[in-house]
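Notes from hallway chat w/ T.B., transcribed later so I don't forget. T.B. wanted the structure written out for a chain they're using in a teaching module, and asked if we could keep both sequence and structure tokens in one place. Agreed to drop them here.
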Amino acid sequence: MEAGPSRKSALTMPAAAQAAIQELKEADIVIGIPSYNNARTIGHVVRAAVAGLQKYFPQYRSVVVNSDGGSKDGTPEAVLGVEAADPRLLLLSTPLSGVHRLSLPYHGVPGKGSAFRMIFQMASELNARVCCVVDSDLRSITPEWIDLLVRPVLHGGFDFVAPYYHRHKYDGTITNSIIYPLTRALYGPRIRQPIGGDFGLSAAMVRRYLQHEDWESDVARFGIDIWMTTTAVAENFQVCQAFLGAKLHDAKDPGADLSAMLQQVLSSVFALTARYSGAWRPRTGSQPCELFGFRYDVGLEPVAVNVERMLDAFAKGFEDLRDVWGIALSQATMRALAGLARAAREPGAADTFHLGDRLWTGLVYEFAAAWRREAVERGHIMRSFTPLYLGRVASWVIETRPMDANAVEERMEQLCLTFEAMKPYLVELWDNPLAPYPGETAITAKETAHAGND
């Protein structure tokens, strides 16, 4: 656990990063900001990070590292051009040392994971006590975020601080429909935003990440956040959450532009499920995860959704992918989906369509088992999942339209409890990957007849 990064990982660092390490020698806190064409927003993120370090940790040596993936819009220049805010407005004490700002290119597979890799290497080489990473497209970050992500590690003995945000009910649909309930059911801790993007990490946690050999895989693209969270909880590091208020960023319609991200995140989740099967199989139920920060209600920006387009994609997916789904899913699940595909084409479907929790949980678990046994080429399995996800999101949007944020969170709890209650079905499928699927184990005949209604 205490070994440093391997020689292989150290050699991947660009010359500019190595030169910076030689100049800085050491740092107590490293704040990392991965970026790619984020000139419009990254200046605000850097200013918030610098102000947070100056305000809350003035006695520590700190560095802000921008790990950039070859931006063409002037992102590195935006980082280096940020002027320190007026200390009379932001500081509670006089800084004992300045905050260094670096903007460096990374090498490796294009993606956020490679950017994180360089940040972690910098933190390790500088013997940092804490490494904190934040997204570069944030518009709601404040100096307090730095305090909340760093202090539990620096003074509380935690290894991994996950973010806890208030988000619009249609923002983060991959998290809400799959990643949160599945991660919670598998490993236990109720980490609400396991792919949130903003984390605080101990030196031991950083060293452990660098010891892994996943940096040339899909982890380096969209899988890094769930990989970090899963590694922390499955390997029994000390984890907690920090309440950061609202997450305002460049949110997208969940029915558009998320297919590649969904496939790569879900592939990473299933690969980690295989890696850590010894950790999750005996665990039952879930447990609260300690939360730092004062919770308060915040205003949120609405997220536009197009239910009709999602339902059309779901129905068309059943027509085009029926053979693939038939290999991955049980007969009972397929019968329920056939009924839902017909329902999605009916007049008024945008107000009545419903894909229930048990059906949804069962098909997620069946897809996980199909991925494990490679029933079809894994990339094809993952690509075929997108219409199912869109059908579930459409159902969720229809159901939660009249609900406020608190009611939606209560509804999320019901989904999570369904994932937990049906976990034995996943264990059964996982332990018998070559056996025929037990027809009615997950989806009862009554549920099939009602096309997935709970």
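Follow-up for T.B.: DSSP finds 21 helices and eight strands in the chain. Might be a good example for the class.
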